[in-house]
Recover the amino acids of this structure.
């Protein structure tokens, strides 16, 4: 496991007494499922933020980047709704901590400084850096999905994690091809 994921696990372990299901549940989910959904929501929210950045005409993003950004936003927004609904149905909090710097906890998350630097780029420079950032971001999501596939219990979470792995692996291949 990555250091960021281990830090995330430590933070969630500290918060576990406040949650209603640190262990297995009769509803077919466990702490790994809860942690995955709680962490993947802000991870997906940042991917949508990155997509929105590319879709801003000021960046001058190329057509291929624009198409990928649209696809990423279209896929991840419904997945956020799906994870939110799962957490609500389990009686679990949606957010771990609104003020938390998720870049320290989750692989692939950009810091505020990295987001600002990316937003300042234009044209081909923006495209290259955006693609590299999104590849790292997707790799982080796949790592998180692989972890819940190994440790989770919820069939709904397993299905979502498998879809995330497949879709984001395909998008990584597209982005690597664009980078040459």
């Amino acid at each position: 496991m990555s250091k960021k994921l281990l830090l995330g696990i430590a933070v969630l372990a500290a918060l576990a007494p406040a949650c209603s299901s640190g262990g297995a549940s009769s509803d077919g989910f466990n702490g790994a499922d809860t942690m995955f959904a709680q962490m993947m929501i802000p991870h997906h929210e940042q991917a949508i933020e990155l997509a929105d950045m590319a879709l801003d005409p000021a960046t001058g993003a190329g057509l291929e980047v624009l198409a990928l950004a649209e696809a990423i936003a279209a896929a991840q927004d419904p997945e956020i709704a799906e994870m939110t609904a799962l957490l609500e149905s389990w009686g679990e909090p949606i957010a771990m901590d609104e003020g938390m710097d998720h870049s320290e906890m989750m692989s692939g998350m950009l810091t505020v400084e990295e987001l600002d630097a990316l937003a300042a780029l234009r044209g081909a420079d923006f495209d290259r850096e955006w693609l590299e950032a999104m590849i790292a971001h997707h790799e982080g999501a796949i790592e998180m999905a692989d972890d819940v596939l190994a440790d989770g219990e919820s069939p709904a979470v397993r299905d979502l994690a498998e879809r995330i792995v497949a879709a984001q692996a395909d998008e990584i291949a597209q982005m690597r091809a664009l980078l040459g």
Observations:
- Residues 108 and 136 are 5 Å apart (CA to CA).
- Confidence is low (pLDDT under 50) at residues 1-26.
- DSSP finds six helices and no strands in the chain.
- The domain at 27-90+105-179 is CATH 1.20.1260.10 (Ferritin).
